[in-house]
Amino acid sequence: LLTRNNSIDLHEYKSSGNLQKKQVFDAVAAASVLSNGSGVDTSKSQVITLATFTKFLESRQQEKLTEEQIKGLIK
Fold it and tell me: What superkingdom heads the lineage (predicted)?
């Protein structure tokens, strides 16, 4: 499950007291994927390359990380 969280979210929610509210929203979003996932094939596991994941982080998450930092995310 990929989320739209980034380092700014982690700082804001850690310091503002909205963490519990965010966790509820995240749980609702995750549950909706399971209940509204008709047509989504989850029977196969899919793998993406490090280069593809790097591009995803840059273009969708607006995070520019080193290769080592990205490897640390997936360990």
Answer: Eukaryota
Say yes or no: 39 and 66 in one domain: no
Are 39 and 50 within one domain?
no
Quickly list H helices, 1-75: 7-16, 19-35, 50-60, 67-73
Give the residue numbers spanning the domain of 55. 45-75
Q: What distances in angstroms separate CA 7 from CA 12, 14, 28, 65, one per listed residue?
A: 9, 11, 21, 11
